[in-house]
Amino acid sequence: MLNKKQGLSGIITMLIIIALVLVAIGAVWYVVQNVLEQGQAETEEASGDLFADCEIEGGVLSNESGVCASGEKRIIGGEYCCI
Fold first, then answer.
1. Residue 71 and which of 30, 31, 51, 79 are 20 to 30 A apart at CA?
2. Helices (H), the chain
3. Which residues pair with 74 in a beta bridge?
């Protein structure tokens, strides 16, 4: 008689390996996607002032060495602005 269990065992082993690889790919994709989304959110937050206007934001234009009487000096729209 022929022993068919060896062939079936090889197929089951291959299916388990394929399933493990798919799970590993899914886990890596999940982590990479979260890192990319977090980086995108941080970039959008950091570049929010890049295209803004100082006066629209309620500030007063200043020069680099100027002291802000109102407190905080930020770069908004490429210009020094006292907020």
1. 51
2. 5-46
3. 81
